[in-house]
Amino acid sequence: MSYLLGIWQHGGRIAPASFSTTTVAAVSCPSSPAKGSSSSSASAGVSLDFESHHRQDDTADAELDDRPRTYAACAGNFSEYTPCEDVQRSLRFDRTRLIYRERHCPDKTEKVKCRVPAPYGYRIPFRWPASRDLAWYANVPHKELTVEKAVQNWIQYQGDRFRFPGGGTMFPHGASAYIDDIGELINLKDGSIRTAIDTGCGVASWGAYLLSRNVLTMSFAPRDTHEAQVQFALERGVPALIGVLASKRLPYPSRAFDMAHCSRCLIPWAESGGTYLMEVDRVLRPGGYWILSGPPIRWRKYWRGWNRTQDDLRSEQNSIERVARSLCWTKLIEKGDISVWQKPTNHLQCKVNRFCPTQDPDTAWYTNMDTCLTQLPEVSGDEEVAGGQVAKWPARLNAVPPRISGGTVPGITAETFQTDAELWKRRVSYYKTVNNQLGQAGRYRNLLDMNAHLGGFAAALVEDPVWVMNVVPVEAPVNTLGVVYERGLIGTYQSWCEAMSTYPRTYDFIHADSLFTLYKDRCDADDILLEMDRILRPEGSVILRDDVDVLVKLKRMLDGMNYDSQIVDHEDGPLVRQKLLFAVKSYWTAPSTSNHRRSSTSS
C-alpha cells in the first residue's frame, strides 16, 4: 500500500527497469579517481552494457536530450571537399609566390555543417603492402595523371584500379633504383637518417619506397593542376599532406628532418632572396642533407627537353649554389642527375650577418617565412651537434630526446618521458583487447593522433604495419612536436578549430586524448567531430579518451552520425573519471546519380 501511495504522489507512473540483473554497466561515475583500482569491468567476462548511464538533468543541458542531433549528408559533389584548400575560395587571394594555394579556411558563415560522402562505388583500400602499388579507381576517379605522366611511370589505369609502378619525373625506371643511387652518395642504412621531407611529392613514390629502408617521409604537394596527387599518396598508405612553399612556414618544428628532397619539384629555390631554401634549412636537422634532382641539375644534358636555354639554367644553378653557401651548407657531391648538400652540425664557424631575430624557430602556424638564417642552438666546440645528437634508429625511439635532456621543454624531464612511454605501451595493449582489429596486421594503415603530446601512442605501435600522423595542437600548453621528431616519428601542427590540410577519407583510425577538454570554449565540438568524420574512411575507427561527461555528449553526437559507439572504462578500472569512447564509422556513399566532383575542383 505504501508503494502504491508513493507512485500516486509522484504522478502515477511506474518506470520500466533500465537494466537487467545480468548486465554490468561499463561506465561508472566516481567523484574522483581512485589509486590502485582493479582492472576494468570490460574484461570481467560478463555481458557488458556499454550504453552510458551517466546522465545530467535534461533541463540543465539541452545537449543531453534523448534524441541525438542528426547531421545531413553533403551533396555528392563534395566528395573531395578540402575546406582550407577550396579552389574557388583560393581565387580571392594573391597569386604572388603561390599565396593563393596556401591554407585559406572558411569563416563561420561559409562552414558546411554536413557529412562529406564517399564517392559512389567506394571500396575499402587494398591492405598494405599491396596498397603501395594499387588503388581502386572508384576511390580516386581521376585519370589525368595517367595521361600527363604516362612516360614517367607515375601511375597507370587498369580496369577498375590504378597501378603505381614506382616511377617519377627524374626516376622513370623506379623509385627503388633512384633511392639506391642516393644510397651510394649518403648512408641510408646505419639509422642516422630516419625522418625525411619530400617537397612537391607527386604520388609520393619516393616516400613509399623509403619505408622499406626504415625512413619515414613527410610528403607534401599543393592542391593544383596535378589533380589528386596527394590523395593518391594517401590511398597508397603513404604519409602525405596538402602543402606548399609560399609565404608561410611549413607546419613543422625546426631541426625536424634528417633529409630533404626535391625531384623536379619546380620550386624557385633561389628566388625571393633564397627564402625557400632558408625554410628548408630551418626544418633540417644539423648535419642533415638536401637532395636535388631535376632542373637545373645536369642542365647540359637535359636543357633541350626542359625547353629552357643553357644560360638560364646555368644562372639558376649558380644562384642556388650561392644561396646554399650563404646558409653555410657544404656541397658534398653532384653525380649523374643528383646533387647533395649538407647542413653544418653547428654555426660556430658560420660567419653570416643574416641570422634571424629571436623569433621562436619552432613557431610554425600561419607564421611568415623569414629571409634570414635560423640560428642553431649554441655549442661549446666544433665537434658538438647543435641542440644535441639524436641516437640512431631504432634506439632513437626510446632514447631521451635532446630537447628533453637539454631542459628546453617546460615541465618534461627524462623521468616523465620514460614514464609516459611505459604508460602508452600499457594503454595501447588495452586498446587492442577492446578493439581486437587494432591488433590485426593490415586492418588499419593510416592513423591519426589528434593530440599526440610526446608521441607515445605512435611509439607503442611502431612494430605494427601502420604509420601515425602525430598532431600537436597549436593550443596545447607545451609545444612538443620537436620531441616527436627527435624520436624518429613524424607529425604536424594543427588547430582543430579549422580543417586539416588533407583529403576526405585519409585515415583508417583516429585517436584523441583529452582533445575535447582542450578545446572546450574554443570552438564547437560538432565542428571537430564533422572534421574527424570528413577525414575518416568508411568503416574506420575512433578512440576518444576524455572526462566521462564530455564523452557522454560526444557519444550522442556520434550516434547522430550513425556511428556504432560504446563507452568503456579506463584501463585502470571503473573508478577513474576519464573513460574511453570507441566508435566505428558506418559505410555509406553518395548516391549513384552523383557522378561529378565539387565544381570548384574541376573548373
UniProtKB/TrEMBL annotation:
EC number(s) on record? Answer: 2.1.1.-
Tell me where in or outside the cell this protein is found: Endoplasmic reticulum membrane; Membrane
Q: Which family does it belong to?
A: Belongs to the methyltransferase superfamily.
Read off the lineage from the record: Eukaryota, Viridiplantae, Streptophyta, Embryophyta, Tracheophyta
| PANTHER family cross-referenced by the UniProt entry | METHYLTRANSFERASE (PTHR10108:SF1049), SAM-DEPENDENT METHYLTRANSFERASE (PTHR10108)
Query: Keyword Glycoprotein on this protein?
Result: yes
Q: Name one Pfam family in it.
A: Methyltransf_29
Task: Please identify the protein, giving its name as recorded.
Answer: Methyltransferase
Q: Which InterPro entries match?
A: Put_SAM_MeTrfase, SAM-dependent_MTases_sf
| Membrane topology classification | Single-pass type II membrane protein
| Family matches, as Gene3D superfamilies | Vaccinia Virus protein VP39 (3.40.50.150)
Q: Which organism was this protein described from? A: Eucalyptus grandis (Flooded gum)
Listed GO molecular functions?
A: methyltransferase activity
- Tell me the GO BP annotations in alphabetical order: methylation
Q: Where is the signal peptide?
A: none
